[in-house]
Amino acid sequence: MAAEDIDGVGHVNNVVYLRWMQRAATAHWELVSSPALRAAIHWVVIRHEIDYKAPAFAGERLVVRTWVGTATAATWERHTEVRRIEGDKLLVRCRSVYVALDPATSRPRRVDAELMAPFGARPATQAPP
């Protein structure tokens, strides 16, 4: 973390956590999706719910973890947490809701099996194997 990430009371600023979560979400998407799928989809956030459990301080080693959650026809949730490596202490937990957009029209695109497949997920209406 950079010096400007620390706020006036000496811990990581709330906005910095959100920036880290966005980077983790983007890295996860880029890791699992194909170039064609990345070109066909733009993700936008419509909701963040963030619970701050404990502060982080300059010099601490942290890890950001993210995974996808429940999908509907129009939205897909993503979970993210930030932990202090020493002691595996949960600092922040976030649930975000995303909408997939068609970049050509800027209109929402259905969250279907094709879009979910790279994540190993499947639509809620599909029965487990």
Provide a descriptive summary of the structure in words.
The chain is about 20% helix and about 35% strand. A hairpin with a 4-residue loop joins strand 2 (about 60-70) and strand 3. It is elongated. The protein has helices at about 15-30, 35-40, 115, and strands at about 40-50, 60-70, 75-85, 90-100, 105-110. It has three helices and five strands. It starts with 13 loop residues before the first helix and ends in a 13-residue tail after the last helix. By secondary structure, the protein is of the alpha+beta class. About 15% of the residues are buried. Strands 1, 2, 3, 4 and 5 form a five-stranded antiparallel β-sheet that branches. The protein has a single domain (about 5-120), classed as Roll (Thiol Ester Dehydrase, Chain A), CATH 3.10.129.
Question: How would you summarize the topology of this molecule?
Answer:
Blueprint: H1 14-32, H2 35-40, E1 42-52, E2 62-71, E3 76-84, E4 89-102, E5 107-108, H3 113-116
Antiparallel strand pairs: 1-4, 2-3, 3-4, 4-5
- Whole-number average pLDDT? 91
Helical content, roughly?
Answer: 10-25%
| Biggest sheet record | 5 strands, antiparallel
CATH C-level label: Alpha Beta
Q: What form results from the Cα inertia axes?
A: elongated
Straight-line distance between termini: 43 Å
Given the helix and strand composition, which structural class is it? alpha+beta
What is the domain tally? 1
Could you please say which CATH topology applies here?
Thiol Ester Dehydrase, Chain A
